[in-house]
Amino acid sequence: MSDFQPILTEHIHQKECHTLSFYISVGGYSALEKVLAMSADDVIELVKASNLRGRGGAGFPAGVKWSFIPQDGEKPKYLINNADESEPGTFKDRLLINKTPHQILEGMIIASYAIGCNTAFIYIRGEFFKEYQLLEKVVAEAYEGNFLGKGILGSDYDLDVVIHRGAGAYICGEETGLIESLEGKRGWPRIKPPFPAIEGYLKCPTVVNNVETLSNLPHIINRGPEWFKSIGPEKGPGPKLFCVSGNVNSPGVFEEPMGIPLKDLIFDLAGGIKDGNELKAVFPGGSSSAILTAEEALSVNMDFDSLAEIKTMLGSAGVIVMDEKVDMVQACLNIARFYAHESCGQCTPCREGTAWLVKILTRITSGDGNSNDIDMILEITDNIGGLIDFSKGSFGKTICPFGEAVAWPVRSFVEKFENNFRQYISQEESVT
Amino acid sequence: MSDNNSHKDSFEYVNPDLVDNILSQYPDKRSATLPLLHLAQTQEGYISNAVVDTVAQITETHPAEVMDCASFYTMFYLRVQGRYILQVCQTLSCSLNGADALVDHITDRYGIGPGETTPDGKFTLMKVECLGSCGTAPVVQINNDYHEGLSKEILDELLESLQ
């Protein structure tokens, strides 16, 4: 097992670790006290200096995102904690909510202070009902302890936190879809710019940060940016929660430094492949990442830049492991069906394209495919998600990155496991 | 539209204090739409046309805007469901760990396919997308509760315990 001493999940095996009294007993809210004695600018600069990159999927530097919030202007500013965890293969934020909710809240208060916000929201996916109930208690406890409300800890800083339940829409994890949803509308992403930092919730400056991103903040404040940068690669450092699921012996959430070899996650921490089978393929960063062959998976490190180099991404660090028995065409269909179901319907290439991918993949798996179908799948993925050339940054056929999120994985299945697709088709063609 | 939806002409929240509490948390009324729909569904079991009208009145929006919202989200039901809604996650990690067999099992046991309700109104079967609990696959959500790491046997025990 690993020598790394967990930071975000250090106490999760303790009884009552979710309570305020426990959190305070292990130094909780001491970072907040420090922050309240600092200027907001200094907090932003400190987080910028740490190189903390967003843990929700896009990996945008958190401090930089905050610095886009206009300092002047009369409009209220908002912070939204994105707890809409719904990327297939991802289940880390749920763990943090259940085990260390006050760590998240402390991070939210720090971020809110830094951007000058007095009302913050937790947007939690609707299915997480038990977690929603827990957060209600946690927020109430925080008000009682004067960590929220008026004049927090004797300062002149006020903050209210509102918990808002989603209602079953993957797209609301995308920050502008989330904002629309919070406004009481369908979760249709917005064209950017304007970015939320300028025009977000109710057209006011808004920052959306992920649960895990926020959870890092108390530690960065307490131990400093240099300490944070000493963990993992300097350009995208820090502790990271990796979720491992699929055909492994011990699935779970593992906290390790950024940059841990994927091989170690699968074969050491997650106990290797079930039933003594061979590894076949891996999603490294949720189902929106391009899939890796076993060979690629055995040599890559789990950090933003190493994964981008081999044309996939760290995403939400949802590692889905597939063994030799998995039918890659069925797996591809499973994922395509997910995206067809979750496409918000706003952009034609995505709405129609995802439905066609499901139709064609269903046709192939039911033995009715023909040799044009593979090219047609590739053509559709191009049409939804651009040319998928990372070096050219070819985005832009859909309003939000959902288009790329379906195009990348589907295309990678076809390109890396084309033989599996050909087998279905050649069987059919030899019959006819 | 036919009738399951419109058999009630009016809807009122049984606890107006909860409505006021929701409204007090948001800077504008329309932002209260989702929580008000959740609250109504907890009371009624589904979102009827009457609920849509009431929410539109409270949030000062057009009923079409509330319906636009209610129909977009999979957790809002536009018609009556069974008392127990069996939501089997079918996305990849659950599928790799036997979710499809759980769906078949429920279908065999109660004679209902996905989207259908037993004639006695007790169970509705749904296939749902990723529930965010992939590490304990396969997962079935029954009403608000997650049941993780299920086998057919554990699922059977669970189903029998539901009154």
Q: Could you please describe the fold and organization of this structure?
A:
The complex is a heterodimer of chains A (432) and B (163). With 432 residues, chain A is an alpha/beta fold. Chain A is built from 18 helices and 11 strands. Chain A has a 5-stranded mixed beta sheet with strand order 6-5-11-8-9, with helices on both faces. Chain A is globular and about 80 Å long. Chain B folds into 2 domains: 7-72, NADH-quinone oxidoreductase subunit E (Arc Repressor Mutant, subunit A); 84-161, Glutaredoxin. The relative contact order of chain B is 0.12. The chains are: A alpha/beta (432), B alpha+beta (163). Chains A and B meet through strand 3, strand 5, strand 11 and helix 14 of A and helix 2, helix 4 and helix 5 of B.
Biggest sheet of chain A, open or closed, and with what strands and sense? 5 strands, mixed
Number of helices of chain B: 7
Task: Report the helical percentage of chain B.
Answer: 40-55%
The level 1 CATH classification of the largest domain in chain A is Alpha Beta
Domains of chain A (count): 3
**DSSP strand content of chain B:** 5-15%
Question: How would you classify the helix and strand content of chain A by structural class?
Answer: alpha/beta
Strand order of the largest sheet of chain B: 2-1-3-4
CATH architecture of the largest domain in chain B: 3-Layer(aba) Sandwich
Number of domains of chain B: 2
Low-pLDDT stretches of chain A = none
Write the layout of secondary structure elements.
The complex is a heterodimer of chains A (432) and B (163).
Chain A: H1 20-25, H2 30-36, H3 40-50, H4 62-67, E1 78-83, H5 92-99, H6 101-115, E2 119-124, H7 129-144, E3 160-165, H8 175-182, E4 206-210, H9 211-223, H10 225-229, E5 239-246, E6 252-257, E7 260-261, H11 262-269, E8 279-283, E9 292-293, H12 294-299, E10 301-302, H13 304-309, E11 318-323, H14 328-342, H15 348-365, H16 372-385, H17 402-416, H18 418-431
Helix pairs in contact in A: 2-6, 2-9, 3-6, 5-6, 6-9, 14-15, 14-17, 15-16, 16-17, 17-18
Chain B: H1 16-25, H2 33-44, H3 49-59, H4 63-72, E1 84-89, H5 92-96, H6 99-110, E2 123-128, E3 140-142, E4 145-147, H7 152-161
Parallel strand pairs in B: 1-2
Antiparallel strand pairs in B: 1-3, 3-4
Helix pairs in contact in B: 2-3, 3-4
